[in-house]
Amino acid sequence: MDFVERIFKIDKFERLGEFLKSNDTIINLKNVSGSLFSFIVAYVYHNIEGKIIVLVQDEEFGHKVADDLNFIIGENKVFEFIPDEDMLADDIDVLKVKFAYEYAQGEKIIILSVKQIDERIPLSKELNFYSFPISVGEKINYDHFVSYLLRSGFERKRYVESRGDYSIRGSIVDVFGFVGEYPVRIEFFDDEVASIREFDIFTQRSLRNLNRTLIVPKLVDVNVEMIEISKLLNDSICIIEDINLVIQALDEDIFEGVEFKKLINILRLEAGNFSGNLMDFSSKGQPFFNSSITLFSDEVSRMLKNGFEVYLLCDGNEQMERMRELVEETMGFEQMAKIHFKGKSLNLGFILMKDKIAVLTEHEIFNRIKARNFLKYRKFKGITLHELEMLKPGDFVVHVDYGVGKFVGLQKIKINGIEQEAVRLEYADGGILYVNLNYINRIKKYRGEEGVVPKLNKLGSAEWEKLKERTKDSIKRVARDLIWLYAKRSYVKGFKFSPDNYLQKEMEASFIYEDTPDQRRATIEVKQDMESEKPMDRLICGDVGFGKTEVAIRASFKAVLDKKQVAVLVPTTILAHQHYKTFRERLKNYPVRIEVLSRLVPRSKQVKIIEDIEKGDVDIIIGTHRLLSNDIRFKDLGLLIIDEEHRFGVEAKEKLRKMKVNVDTLTLSATPIPRTLYFSLMGARDMSIINTPPPNRLPIITKIITVDSPKFKDIVKNAIYYEISRGGQVYFVVDKIVEIEDVAKFLSGIVPELKFDVVHGKMKPSAIEKVMLRFLEQKFDILISTKIIEAGIDIPNVNTIFIYNAHTFGLAEIYQLRGRVGRSNRQAYAYLIIPPVETIGTNAIRRLSAIEEFTELGSGLNLALKDMEIRGIGNLFGKEQTGFINSIGFDLYCRILEEALEELKAQEFKEIFKDEKKLKKKFDAIVSVDVSAFIPDYYVDSDSERFSYYQKLYEAGSLDEIDVIRDELEDRFGKLPEEVENLIFVSKIKHLCEKNYIQRVEVGREYVVVILREEVLNSEVFREIVDVFSRGSNLKFEKRGKETRLVLKFKYSTSVRQNLVKFYGLLEELSVQFSDYERNFSTNP
Questions:
Q1: All residues at 6 or more sequence positions from 141 whose CB lies less than 8 Å from its CB, including other chains
Q2: What is the dihedral of CA 639, 644, 647, 650, to 10 degrees?
Q3: Over residues 854-864, mean pLDDT
Q4: Which residues sit opposite 1049 in a β-bridge?
Q5: Helix runs in 183-316, H state only
Q6: Are the beta carbons of 535 and 478 closer than 8 angstroms?
Q7: How far apart are CA 937 and CA 953, in angstroms?
Q8: Which family is annotated (predicted)?
Q9: Which neighbouring-strand residues pair with 565?
């Protein structure tokens, strides 16, 4: 029997069902614990007709109920009206319209915060009057519909960006109304609605077809009749979290005069007055197991012995399998088999004492946070990654062959009388370059460090080629050392650690977040290294908060279980003490001795710790470069962990190099490197990349607030007091030192009793350290700082950050600053303070909104990550590399880096890499056709958008990818013109030519000319190509200079299009025969 069905089978639910059918109005339920509350809501939903409102006092509990209901009754059955307290009035108005709509539909459970009970929403009749229903096949006057959108306050945009926008492209109208999760795309055929599709606001791609939709305007902007929410209770089935406590909390009886249709009152206190029937569910909450599998197993064994059914709900199938293993090790297979494991979880466990059913959640056993989907109400539509990477006229670009120029736009040109489109670039001294679409993939948008303005190159100058050579030579110098070190270590024998035991598994299971795939992979790779005889030397790259420290703790524990010592080396005293706290907290349930060595530790204690290290009494020692001193001697060092190695001096690095020779070494870096380079660096450095944050880490709630808002002072004051009230602390970050005094005055005025201190870059390092340590020790409440806290500070107690004049910071800076909070299991908040919107412009707002919307770390704000990747390469290969990146652009730098590494592997180190599989190199094929193949501007009017599509088509990695782009064009812009159909066909031929060793193709009305790559002319490949071509056409050979040309003439072909189709068929046949890897070409024909 299904788990949910089993819970509903208990007799209490039968009695509840009888009440729902009876004429009784009120029933009181007591001893309703944990997520049993959500089961009661679900049971009511399944067993009675009518509108259901759930009233909660605790808003966080309301979110948990909504999340539980997704599990119990399926997704998209709940609407939450729980606005944030500082949500702007406009956003609350949008929510009110959605509330009115969902209530009128009556299909969803509405979860309502009691604080919102006196809010007013539009009446259902007003909703019907002002909305516009549309169905597929319906006849609608197109002009009348567009006129309706204008009258109703919708704003016309090029693309739909946020609620209240619409756009028109030919026969397609995109609209984002004020209800529904997604905007809709309505396609007309004359005055008939041909199709309705929901689409994604970021990709602009259609998601699914609809038969009908309802366009609802922002009703609160017009004079409509409203109703107080409390009046709706007369018509609703209400489930209330203790009505008496609600009345007490609000200090008024808001339910006076309300005649409930049905009221289910969940008592939280048994004392007090209540009317109606009483039912006892006899449940209690999940016991506290203190992250101990042993305690859990003992309790479950007792339950099973007493005849309980035990359900263990896990956060996903992988967690479920891990729990099976742990439980089997402590209870044995027979007992473990009696437990019902589930790969989905509720928020809170509960035990039905009389019914003898225990529903336990795995995340509560380990005091871990449960992952859940967070509802996000968008204020602005932030700039998308697609927009940020899209070229706009005036942007800097890098052409592989000609250097840094400026993108002017696209221009129509005629080649042999055929109209085509070319890219126009401008260089130094007014030089103009027209780039044929065949070469578009040699152009990339310039990316250097944020704020760097590149120097334009001069056409015809030799300087560009020299700069590329200098870059490659510099990379080779550094990479050569890396490869030598890697090769040397592979011949040294180290300690072989034991496989994981039960304690290791239990400790890992107690991690408060669910492992991400990247983190899991990194953990496996580290353990495989440790369990081999070759000494480990692994670098783990990952952004702040992505779980690198947890991997290091697991590796440390593994070493300690094998009686080995661990040294954790960090660049600053503050970091040493932070890591000390983290390691101790994480391993507090195990007999592991952890110590810290820094100049803050009293001299007498340092002497004792050093003695104990030599005796082997200290398992894990954490410290700064002090650990590298000559007086530190380990009894049996098994693992060295280095955090941010690039921040150590030359002398320290040299000592580390000697230490690493036969000790397993794990290096952590918070600056990521591009994943594409990860594969090139394999063999030069063992690396693990963690690109994703823990999925159940609470997203950082990010808000933009303007200083001219009437609520500005209250929002800041309330946010600070809220953080302080839960025992936390606050960062207040400014861009300039001169702003510190203004902020200090402002804070003294609104929170005079709180203590604050200041740090900035002009202070001495020792003074900064002193202030930071006092903050770490919670000696004051608010730290006013410049952006020097951007890296290397990790204080889990700080979970609110204000960024003053946020519009003056780079996106990468804001992204990293925001990452300073949200490092614990508490909800974190980031407030971006800006001047009045009209003074900084819409674009600045939209850039900040990109940060605001991507509330989750690593959730897609790759623009910020791009800047950090540049730093990452600087850290890995040395700071001088950053200069090269700024000169030639990040993308070309990465390309040269890959080439340099491949050349080293193939030439100087070919013996070491002889067994490494070599991927087939990417070559550019040139396709010339005697037909127009481009995107007309009447079809896509933006140069930037057309350029983006050209680039996507010519860089596509497969034919399927080209088909997806074709579908996207048709979806967004309507039926493809002939020129675009030709372009799609040409891009497919280009792709197949590149796979089949063809360098150039000319397709005319009478014949097709093929020029092969030189290296295949004396190989077996040449025979195969000739064989296929001669079977499908009349094939002739021509010699023009050094060039061998294959001329194909097809029977019965009288047009370019027919020749294209037939040649495409031959290419498809060829591609089946050629593998994805370079062939070892024979030198003999």
A1: 191
A2: 30
A3: 44
A4: 1034
A5: 229-232, 243-250, 293-305
A6: no
A7: 17
A8: In the C-terminal section; belongs to the helicase family. RecG subfamily.
A9: 637
**Helix (H), strand (E) at residue 127:** helix 124-130
CA of residue 604 relative to chain centroid, distance? 48
Task: Please give the C-alpha separations between residue 53 and each of 45, 268, 409, 740, in angstroms, as whole numbers.
Answer: 10, 18, 56, 48
- How many secondary structure helices (H) and strands (E) does the chain include? 36, 45
Distance CA 946, CA 940 (A): 6
Q: Per-residue pLDDT tens for 920-941?
A: 667 789 999 999 999 999 999 8
C-alpha span between 362 and 696 (Å, rounded): 13
Q: 529: Cβ–Cβ under 8 A, 6 or more apart, which residues?
A: 536, 538, 664, 686
Which residues on adjacent β-strands are paired with residue 1040? 1043
> What is the rounded CA–CA span in Å between residue 800 and residue 729?
7
pLDDT of residue 432: 96
In 290-372, at which residue ranges do the beta strands (DSSP E only) sit? 309-313, 340-342, 350-352, 357-361
Rounded Cα distance between 100 and 114, Å, is 17
The whole-angstrom separation of Cα 167 and Cα 145 is 13
Whole-angstrom Cα distance, residue 797 to residue 778? 9
Q: Is the pLDDT of residue 532 over 90?
A: yes
Range of 78-92, 208-222, 813-827, 872-886 with top mean pLDDT: 208-222
Tokens of 1062: 């037939």
- pLDDT tens, residue by residue, 252-283: 677 777 788 889 999 877 655 566 788 999 99
> Tell me, what's the pLDDT at 794?
72
Per the model's pLDDT, the better-predicted residue between 414 and 404 turns out to be 404
3-state secondary structure 625-666: HHHHCCCCCCCCEEEEEEECHHHCCHHHHHHHHHHCCCCEEE
Give, as one character, the DSSP assignment of residue 234.
G
Contact present, 954 and 437 (Cβ < 8 Å): yes
Question: So what's the pLDDT on residue 859?
Answer: 37
Tokens of 972: 């967004």
Q: Is the pTM of this model over 0.85?
A: no
Separation between Cα atoms, residue 673 and residue 690, nearest integer Å: 10
Position 36 pLDDT exceeds 90: yes
Mean pLDDT in residue range 37-57: 94
149-164 per-position pLDDT tens digit:
999 989 998 888 788 9
* Burial track 736-763 (b if 16+ CB lie within 10 A, e otherwise): eeebbeebbeebeeebeebebbbbeeeb
Tokens of 149: 């959108």
The residues pairing with 783 across neighbouring beta strands, listed in sequence order, are 731, 757
Q: Look at 582-586, 680-684, 954-958 and tell me which has the smallest mean pLDDT.
A: 680-684
- What mean pLDDT comes out for the span 655-670? 81
Asked whether residue 206 carries a pLDDT value surpassing 60, the answer given is: yes
Give 554-583 as a DSSP string.
Answer: HHHHHHHHTT-EEEEE-SSHHHHHHHHHHH
**What amino acid is encoded at 132 in this protein?**
F
* Top-confidence residue, 864 or 287: 287
- Answer for the pair 111, 56: CB distance below 8 angstroms, yes or no: yes
Burial tier of 1060 (Cβ tally within 10 Å: 0-12, 13-18, 19+)? buried
Amino acid, single-letter form, for residue 968: E
- At 644 the pLDDT is 81
> Strand pairing partners for 26?
263
Identify whether the C-beta of residue 303 lies closer than 8 Å to the C-beta of residue 309. Answer: no
Which domains can be identified in the chain, with CATH numbers?
A: 3-124+225-281 (3.40.50.300), 132-215 (3.30.2060.10), 284-365 (no CATH), 483-690 (3.40.50.300), 701-855 (3.40.50.300), 926-1073 (3.90.1150.50)
Residue 951: closest CA among 550, 435, 359, 497: 435
- Angle made by CA atoms 779, 785, 787, in degrees to the nearest 5: 135
